[in-house]
Design goal:
Two copies of one chain form a homodimer. The first copy, chain A, is an alpha/beta fold and 336 residues long. Helices cover 41% and strands 17% of the residues of chain A. Chain A is built from 14 helices and eight strands. In chain A, strands 1, 2, 3, 4, 5, 6, 7 and 8 form an eight-stranded mixed beta sheet that branches.
Chain lengths: 336, 336
């Protein structure tokens, strides 16, 4: 058979397979959601996604508008006993301490080096800014990327002893795949640093760096030894949290999502922004940490990932609350 | 034939076609570059792209790293006699004038309304900031998007009398398609406003809004009549030009491009940043406006799209200078 004949048969059969697939069974079915137990959450997902992909029906969403946004900490991976980016910063402080003798007498560095977390965290997020500046800036973007990659390959979580990128949620990986298989573009929209996430999220979630929205600092383009570099400067210019999330979405994505998932009140506005438009069906979801045995249980009173307003307003807004304990057959990819 | 049998034959033939295509002729060949005359520019492009897609060879670039960035004004569409975004702003000033009687006595509004461009532009870019603020902010992102769409559908260029989105460059459309057919992701990296480009670039170039990098202003998320909106505020927060372009690329894309195209010294740093890395082959290109008959001829002495440093340094950096007059068989899609 010559090349053209093969090509014609190939295209014809492709069309035929595609048409049958529409009628018989979608190849991209909810079979992907293997780690989701049957229940209201899974039902809400598999009710929503297929109806948005059927052309000619009122709930159809054109592929170009199938934008799905996901918070990261507590939504795609764990965030206890502290945000993993903070664990990274502390490890960096320890690694850099020999070159910074002044840290022995300067807070919050002193407390971090002594393992006194209560004192170190006493100043809240603001109090930690010097730590973030010292560990995340004053170097080139490429040097920082390498530091994050090295840390991710070696550092381990204090409780599970696993690498941090092994503490991603298997059911959420499946949800990302399920959405992508149905023509959705998946984005991360996180309050953490964009440069901290990009070096590893492509491998972890299949989300490329240009589909990551996060907090970011000022940068400077300059020549070093005749080669251009981008230096990371110690000035936060965008905090992608709470009100910042819809703004970050507009800034980076330029389209209003139709699907958004978070786990804390920091995601409230993203989910509100996503689900209050009326042109298409919309899906809002909070992952509720209810599993003290396999992961962590926390919500209204947690200083990390506090979820109160989201729980209070979920029913009236038709948002899905995912109960980790009951909805998820598995937490991490490595779980049995 | 049943579904599974068809699917198997389909996949088998697909593989066979693919393997033959590799040996016989790439489906995604330079046949796409129909409006490019044979010459050094076209040769440089069709030398570069295919060699980067052959796995196992030293010049191979993995698909994830095939990032191509394009300036917009003067690179993908015309920019004379003034940036089209400025033409938009002037049209908006005229449309809004009845509600702003104070503009009759306030510069540069007064001059714009009287058609006295010399006075209006006397203050340079800085002098026009009040005009940009008045026409681009103080409204929701969704309202602004609609205004841009309406303007694009109705406004026409003073010389060609065509709609502005008809003044895109056919050879560059073909180059975008050629790159995408070879696994490249194409991005716009422009000094103009990101919100001004996004409403129309997807249709014009096939580039979705989340692959557009541009200048941007401050925003505020707020509730109006019980519905959330994003308000555009009159404060420029990011100027995506010159040094800003590599920074914008890092900020939005998070990867260093391997291919970059511009037309003015405002694109110098983007092309420098793209072509000075040594891990992969790199391609830098300036579109040189040499065609006074079919478009415009300008470079070193132009106040719009000034190209001097780029021309001076092209040879030593192995950057391609596209000669519009000789390299392009056609300028606009509507040309014969």
């Amino acid at each position: 058979m010559n090349y053209k004949a093969k090509l014609i048969i190939f295209l014809f059969l492709g069309l035929s397979v595609l048409m049958e697939a529409q009628n018989v069974k979608l190849i991209t079915s909810s079979d992907l959601l293997l780690s989701w137990n049957d229940g209201a959450s899974k039902k809400a997902i598999i009710d929503f996604v297929p109806k948005t992909t059927k052309e000619g029906t009122p709930d159809f969403i054109p592929i170009a508008d199938r934008i799905a946004t996901f918070d990261n900490d507590g939504t795609l991976w764990s965030e206890q006993p502290m945000y993993f980016q903070l664990a990274f910063a502390i490890d960096q402080v320890k690694a850099m301490a020999p070159e910074h003798p002044e840290w022995k007498t300067t807070q919050p560095f002193k407390a971090l080096l002594e393992g006194d977390m209560k004192t170190a965290l006493a100043g809240g997020a603001e109090g930690l800014l010097p730590v973030l500046a010292a560990t995340h800036t004053g170097m080139t973007t490429e040097a920082f990327e390498q530091i994050v990659k090295d840390w991710m390959a070696t550092a381990t979580h204090p409780i599970t002893k696993n690498h941090y990128n092994e503490m991603i949620y298997q059911p959420m990986l499946e949800l990302l795949q399920y959405l992508r298989a149905n023509g959705y573009k998946t984005f991360i929209v996180s309050g953490r640093g964009i440069d901290f996430m990009r070096p590893w999220v492509e491998q972890a979630y299949g989300i490329p760096p240009y589909q990551v929205v996060g907090s970011s600092g000022k940068m400077k383009y300059e020549m070093v030894d005749g080669k251009p570099v981008i230096m990371k400067l110690p000035e936060l210019i965008f905090n992608n949290d709470e009100d910042g999330k819809p703004i970050g979405i507009h800034q980076y994505i330029g389209k209003r999502p139709v699907f958004a998932a978070g786990n804390s009140d920091g995601d409230y506005q993203m989910i509100e922004w996503t689900t209050t438009a009326t042109d298409y069906p919309r899906f809002g979801m909070f992952v509720h940490h209810t599993d003290a045995e396999r992961e962590y249980a926390y919500d209204r009173n947690s200083h990390i990932g506090k979820l109160e307003k989201g729980l209070d307003d979920a029913a009236k807004n038709n948002w899905t609350i995912v109960d980790m304990k009951n909805d998820w057959a598995k937490i991490y990819p490595g779980d049995k």
